[in-house]
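Predict structure. Chain length: 195.
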Amino acid sequence: MAQFGKDRFPEGYQSAVGMGARQMLHQNSIKLATLLKEHNILQNSKTIFELGSGPARNLYYIWLENKNLNLFCSDLFKDASLESMHSDIKDKVTFFEGDSEDIVRTELISDLDIFLVSDHFMHLQYDKAKKIIDWVCDNWKPKHVMLRELKKEFETPNHPRLYHNYHRFLDNYEMVYEGDSAQDSCYFIWILKRK
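Prediction complete.
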Protein backbone atom coordinates (compact mmCIF):
# COMPACT_ATOMS: atom_id res chain seq x y z
CA MET A 1 0.00 0.00 0.00
CA ALA A 2 1.29 3.47 -0.90
CA GLN A 3 2.61 5.53 2.01
CA PHE A 4 2.72 9.30 2.31
CA GLY A 5 3.90 11.93 4.77
CA LYS A 6 5.69 10.89 7.95
CA ASP A 7 4.99 7.21 7.26
CA ARG A 8 7.12 7.41 4.13
CA PHE A 9 9.61 10.08 5.19
CA PRO A 10 10.54 9.77 8.88
CA GLU A 11 12.91 12.20 10.60
CA GLY A 12 16.02 10.26 9.62
CA TYR A 13 15.33 10.96 5.95
CA GLN A 14 16.50 14.56 6.37
CA SER A 15 20.16 13.56 6.73
CA ALA A 16 20.03 11.89 3.30
CA VAL A 17 18.81 15.03 1.51
CA GLY A 18 20.63 17.81 3.37
CA MET A 19 24.19 19.02 2.98
CA GLY A 20 25.41 15.44 3.39
CA ALA A 21 23.36 14.27 0.40
CA ARG A 22 24.91 12.47 -2.53
CA GLN A 23 26.58 14.60 -5.21
CA MET A 24 23.77 14.27 -7.75
CA LEU A 25 21.36 16.04 -5.39
CA HIS A 26 23.83 18.90 -4.94
CA GLN A 27 24.09 19.16 -8.74
CA ASN A 28 20.28 19.37 -8.92
CA SER A 29 20.34 22.27 -6.47
CA ILE A 30 23.14 24.09 -8.28
CA LYS A 31 21.21 23.77 -11.55
CA LEU A 32 18.10 25.34 -10.03
CA ALA A 33 20.14 28.28 -8.75
CA THR A 34 21.90 28.66 -12.10
CA LEU A 35 18.61 28.70 -14.04
CA LEU A 36 17.11 31.36 -11.77
CA LYS A 37 20.24 33.48 -12.24
CA GLU A 38 20.38 32.94 -16.02
CA HIS A 39 16.77 34.07 -16.38
CA ASN A 40 17.40 37.26 -14.37
CA ILE A 41 14.99 36.27 -11.62
CA LEU A 42 17.32 36.25 -8.61
CA GLN A 43 18.76 39.71 -9.14
CA ASN A 44 15.46 41.45 -8.44
CA SER A 45 14.05 38.98 -5.92
CA LYS A 46 13.74 39.59 -2.19
CA THR A 47 11.81 36.53 -0.99
CA ILE A 48 11.77 32.84 -1.80
CA PHE A 49 9.75 30.03 -0.28
CA GLU A 50 10.43 26.33 -0.85
CA LEU A 51 7.64 23.88 -0.09
CA GLY A 52 8.89 20.51 1.19
CA SER A 53 12.43 21.80 1.41
CA GLY A 54 13.89 19.26 3.81
CA PRO A 55 17.16 20.80 5.08
CA ALA A 56 16.97 23.59 2.46
CA ARG A 57 19.83 22.38 0.27
CA ASN A 58 18.24 24.10 -2.75
CA LEU A 59 17.84 27.36 -0.85
CA TYR A 60 21.49 27.30 0.21
CA TYR A 61 22.73 27.25 -3.39
CA ILE A 62 20.17 29.87 -4.44
CA TRP A 63 21.19 32.06 -1.50
CA LEU A 64 24.82 31.87 -2.68
CA GLU A 65 23.66 33.70 -5.83
CA ASN A 66 21.77 36.40 -3.89
CA LYS A 67 22.64 36.73 -0.21
CA ASN A 68 19.99 39.41 0.28
CA LEU A 69 17.14 36.92 -0.19
CA ASN A 70 14.71 36.32 2.65
CA LEU A 71 14.49 32.54 2.91
CA PHE A 72 11.29 30.70 3.84
CA CYS A 73 10.68 26.97 3.72
CA SER A 74 8.66 24.10 5.13
CA ASP A 75 8.90 20.42 5.86
CA LEU A 76 7.60 17.79 8.26
CA PHE A 77 10.49 17.91 10.75
CA LYS A 78 12.08 21.23 11.68
CA ASP A 79 14.76 20.02 14.11
CA ALA A 80 15.94 17.17 11.87
CA SER A 81 16.00 19.55 8.90
CA LEU A 82 18.04 22.16 10.77
CA GLU A 83 20.55 19.50 11.83
CA SER A 84 21.32 18.73 8.16
CA MET A 85 21.14 22.35 6.95
CA HIS A 86 24.22 24.37 5.94
CA SER A 87 25.35 26.42 8.92
CA ASP A 88 25.52 29.61 6.83
CA ILE A 89 21.73 29.76 6.41
CA LYS A 90 20.40 28.18 9.63
CA ASP A 91 19.79 31.56 11.23
CA LYS A 92 18.54 33.11 7.98
CA VAL A 93 15.70 30.66 7.26
CA THR A 94 12.15 31.03 8.49
CA PHE A 95 11.09 27.39 8.79
CA PHE A 96 7.49 26.23 8.96
CA GLU A 97 7.06 22.71 10.34
CA GLY A 98 4.07 20.71 9.18
CA ASP A 99 2.03 19.19 6.40
CA SER A 100 2.44 21.03 3.08
CA GLU A 101 -1.28 21.62 2.57
CA ASP A 102 -1.65 23.03 6.09
CA ILE A 103 1.37 25.30 5.64
CA VAL A 104 0.09 26.71 2.35
CA ARG A 105 -3.33 27.39 3.86
CA THR A 106 -2.08 29.02 7.09
CA GLU A 107 1.28 30.68 6.41
CA LEU A 108 0.62 33.02 3.50
CA ILE A 109 3.77 34.91 2.51
CA SER A 110 2.75 38.15 0.88
CA ASP A 111 4.70 39.74 -1.96
CA LEU A 112 6.53 36.48 -2.63
CA ASP A 113 9.02 36.57 -5.51
CA ILE A 114 9.71 32.84 -5.95
CA PHE A 115 7.68 29.79 -4.96
CA LEU A 116 9.89 26.71 -5.36
CA VAL A 117 8.89 23.04 -5.34
CA SER A 118 11.51 20.43 -6.18
CA ASP A 119 10.93 16.67 -6.00
CA HIS A 120 8.10 17.24 -3.52
CA PHE A 121 4.73 17.33 -5.30
CA MET A 122 5.47 13.82 -6.59
CA HIS A 123 5.33 12.56 -2.99
CA LEU A 124 1.89 14.06 -2.30
CA GLN A 125 -1.53 12.52 -2.88
CA TYR A 126 -3.42 13.74 -5.96
CA ASP A 127 -6.08 15.66 -4.02
CA LYS A 128 -3.53 17.26 -1.70
CA ALA A 129 -1.32 18.49 -4.56
CA LYS A 130 -4.36 19.84 -6.42
CA LYS A 131 -5.49 21.83 -3.40
CA ILE A 132 -1.99 23.26 -2.87
CA ILE A 133 -1.58 24.26 -6.52
CA ASP A 134 -5.02 25.91 -6.56
CA TRP A 135 -4.34 27.72 -3.29
CA VAL A 136 -0.96 29.01 -4.46
CA CYS A 137 -2.40 30.25 -7.77
CA ASP A 138 -5.47 31.87 -6.20
CA ASN A 139 -4.13 33.15 -2.87
CA TRP A 140 -0.35 33.25 -2.62
CA LYS A 141 0.12 34.59 -6.16
CA PRO A 142 3.95 34.54 -6.19
CA LYS A 143 5.68 36.46 -8.96
CA HIS A 144 7.50 33.31 -10.09
CA VAL A 145 7.04 29.57 -9.66
CA MET A 146 9.85 27.08 -10.14
CA LEU A 147 9.13 23.35 -10.39
CA ARG A 148 11.38 20.33 -10.68
CA GLU A 149 9.11 17.31 -10.73
CA LEU A 150 8.59 13.88 -12.23
CA LYS A 151 7.29 13.63 -15.80
CA LYS A 152 3.96 11.87 -16.42
CA GLU A 153 5.48 8.92 -18.29
CA PHE A 154 7.65 8.01 -15.28
CA GLU A 155 4.86 8.07 -12.72
CA THR A 156 4.80 5.07 -10.34
CA PRO A 157 1.58 5.27 -8.28
CA ASN A 158 2.39 2.27 -6.12
CA HIS A 159 5.87 3.48 -5.14
CA PRO A 160 4.48 6.31 -5.03
CA ARG A 161 5.93 8.99 -7.28
CA LEU A 162 2.95 10.87 -8.68
CA TYR A 163 2.40 13.29 -11.55
CA HIS A 164 -0.03 16.17 -11.03
CA ASN A 165 -1.84 18.76 -13.14
CA TYR A 166 0.98 21.29 -13.29
CA HIS A 167 -0.69 22.91 -16.30
CA ARG A 168 -3.08 24.47 -13.79
CA PHE A 169 -0.29 26.98 -13.13
CA LEU A 170 -0.52 28.09 -16.77
CA ASP A 171 -3.93 29.64 -16.06
CA ASN A 172 -2.09 32.31 -14.10
CA TYR A 173 1.51 32.04 -15.30
CA GLU A 174 3.49 32.13 -18.53
CA MET A 175 6.42 29.83 -19.23
CA VAL A 176 9.85 31.41 -18.86
CA TYR A 177 11.83 28.18 -19.05
CA GLU A 178 10.94 24.56 -19.79
CA GLY A 179 13.51 21.79 -19.88
CA ASP A 180 14.64 18.40 -18.65
CA SER A 181 16.74 17.93 -15.55
CA ALA A 182 20.36 17.40 -16.58
CA GLN A 183 20.85 14.98 -13.71
CA ASP A 184 17.84 12.78 -14.53
CA SER A 185 15.73 13.12 -17.68
CA CYS A 186 12.74 11.59 -15.84
CA TYR A 187 12.24 15.07 -14.36
CA PHE A 188 11.22 18.38 -15.90
CA ILE A 189 12.09 21.89 -14.76
CA TRP A 190 9.76 24.83 -15.26
CA ILE A 191 10.17 28.49 -14.43
CA LEU A 192 6.93 30.46 -14.59
CA LYS A 193 6.14 34.18 -14.36
CA ARG A 194 2.81 35.54 -13.23
CA LYS A 195 0.75 37.00 -16.09
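Summary: The chain has a mean pLDDT of 90.
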